[in-house]
Amino acid sequence: MTSKEFSQLIENISSKISKIQQNFDDYQKEFFPERSPQFFCLELNGEAGELANLEKKKWKGREVSDDKIADEAADVFIAIMNYANSRGINLERAILNKLKIIETIRQERADQGLKY
Questions:
Q1: CB atoms < 10 A from the CB of 23, how many?
Q2: Which alpha helices (H) appear in 1-116, and where do they start and end?
Q3: Could you tell me if 102 and 53 are in contact, meaning their C-beta atoms sit under 8 angstroms apart?
Q4: Nearest of 1, 15, 79 to residue 42 by alpha carbon
């Protein structure tokens, strides 16, 4: 990824994630009962586990549809949105902070001829 592409990634996150997160929060509050952060954390781990089980089946050579994997990935995304909202986590800020850390480490390693 070029530095221009990385800048585009940062710009996209900055312009979209907060709105998406707010829309999820509005939807959750309007149509579903209030739940604790612990509930959403457990839900997130359950959904991630279901996705992991599908990947394990594929790894073992079993047939798993791409639609089923996409469905579980969507469940994980929704669960992380709900968890972050229940904890008051600003995902835009958290993601941007984490990407800056990752990019700094990646660049330092690249300068040493190492891969991240």
A1: 11
A2: 3-31, 37-59, 66-87, 91-111
A3: no
A4: 79
Q: How many CB atoms lie within 10 A of CB 82?
A: 22
pTM for this model (two decimals):
0.87
Residue 72 tokens, joined? 């579980």
CA separation for the pair 12, 104 (Å, rounded): 19
CB 10 within 8 A of CB 99: yes
Q: Choose among 22, 6, 38, 27: nearest CA to 107.
A: 6
- The domains of the chain, with CATH numbers, are 3-111 (1.10.287.1080)
Q: What is the pLDDT of residues 56-112, one digit of tens each?
A: 999 999 999 999 999 999 999 999 999 999 999 999 999 999 999 999 999 999 999
Residue 15 is which amino acid? S
